[in-house]
Amino acid sequence: MSPLSCLNCPTDVPPSAITSSAPPADPAASGLAGRIEDLLPQTQCTKCGYPACRPYAEAIADGRASYNQCPPGGAEGVARLARLLGRPVIPLNPVHGREQPRLLAVIDEAACIGCTLCIQACPVDAISGAAKQMHTVIDALCTGCDLCVAPCPVDCITMVEATLGRTGWQAWTQEQADAARARHDWRAVRLKRDKEENDARLAAKAAAKLKEVEAAEAGTPEERAEQARKKAIIQAAMERARLKKLQAEQDDAARSGAKQ
Ligand code: SF4
Ligand code: SF4
Ligand code: SF4
């Protein structure tokens, strides 16, 4: 559980994603959603009912969510949001969980089978390890979100209290929140880049296969029919990929529009 040699931490993580106390540069963050997001603890735990702190901030700004849904922020977090929004201080909504000491994930390394599912689930890249090797939580990076617990097939991750007696913002500093936010945002960039690279690889492979099918000899009507069938399958797959990419680009544009 202690920090040790990091076997899987992405080597291209910018230093700011590990040590910076400043939020990532985001011109759009000047809007109301950005100012709300600045006040959230950035554990990215999803307990508010949204996939990360940013979407929750957007939902509050749009009036789709109340400002008392973040257990890691606790009562102080609600008060901070209430001040920003000019609204009354209200109790944390218990439907989303209770305010509690900050937790820390601990992996029973003897039981770990190295499946990597926890790494995929961790929103801030706080777990190091590689396939079929034991995995370890990097304590200083763990936000206590507990998202790694459920996917573990051998139940070897437990959450322990890391800040005895201190809860909410008493158990979490602004510097920790800023660092978690930077790591989360960087992870999103990396995952998007990885997906784009993979998609490009698949597209090139499909184009090469299409060329190969088109160049193949097809003398008989049966061979020509088979060639046409194969071409149609490849072209349909390429068209599906193109539409998916287009949709992703439109979603990205809509998201950045919503940030402004
Ligand atoms: S810390 Fe968790 S509950 Fe709070 S806003 Fe972020 S994701 Fe939502
Ligand atoms: S190690 Fe587990 S609890 Fe800690 S930040 Fe990652 S997913 Fe959350
Ligand atoms: S999910 Fe569990 S078994 Fe799989 S690598 Fe993580 S700790 Fe090990």
From TrEMBL:
4Fe-4S keyword on record: yes
Iron keyword on record: yes
InterPro entries documented for this protein: 4Fe-4S_dom (IPR007202), 4Fe4S_Fe-S-bd (IPR017896), 4Fe4S_Fe_S_CS (IPR017900), Elect_transpt_cplx_RnfB/RsxB (IPR010207), RnfB_subfamily (IPR050294)
Record-linked Pfam families: Fer4_21, FeS
Gene3D superfamilies recorded: 3.30.70.20, Electron transport complex subunit B, putative Fe-S cluster
The 4Fe-4S ferredoxin-type domain, residue ranges: 103-132, 134-162
Matching SUPFAM superfamilies: 4Fe-4S ferredoxins
Keywords per UniProt: 4Fe-4S, Cell inner membrane, Cell membrane, Electron transport, Iron, Iron-sulfur, Membrane, Metal-binding, Repeat, Translocase, Transport
Domain 4Fe-4S: 23-87
GO molecular function: 4 iron, 4 sulfur cluster binding; electron transfer activity; metal ion binding
PANTHER family: ION-TRANSLOCATING OXIDOREDUCTASE COMPLEX SUBUNIT B, OXIDOREDUCTASE
Protein name: Electron transport complex subunit RsxB
Organism of origin: Herbaspirillum frisingense
Lineage of origin: Bacteria, Pseudomonadati, Pseudomonadota, Betaproteobacteria, Burkholderiales
Name of the encoding gene: rsxB_1
